[in-house]
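Reading a protein record of the kind used here takes only a little practice. Think of the row as the fold of the chain written in a discrete alphabet. A record is reproduced here so that you can trace the correspondence yourselves:
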Amino acid sequence: MRDVYTSDSSSNHEDWSDSDSQEDVFVNAVRAKNENFFEITVSQYDKDVFREHFRMSRAVVNGLTARFHNSDAYKY
């Protein structure tokens, strides 16, 4: 499968094989991540900056996180 994040200007949609749809390429692409972003960066936000980014208080986010973590939807 083609690496979606390369900047090869010669590649285009016609180069994809029949087994590689555009949707498959984006769904299966490896995405860059910021390791420990929430634990390190977000934990340093003061309450106003936190609210600017997440549009809710830290207490609400923590409550939602706990509910999700304890739900059947979260199976890690």
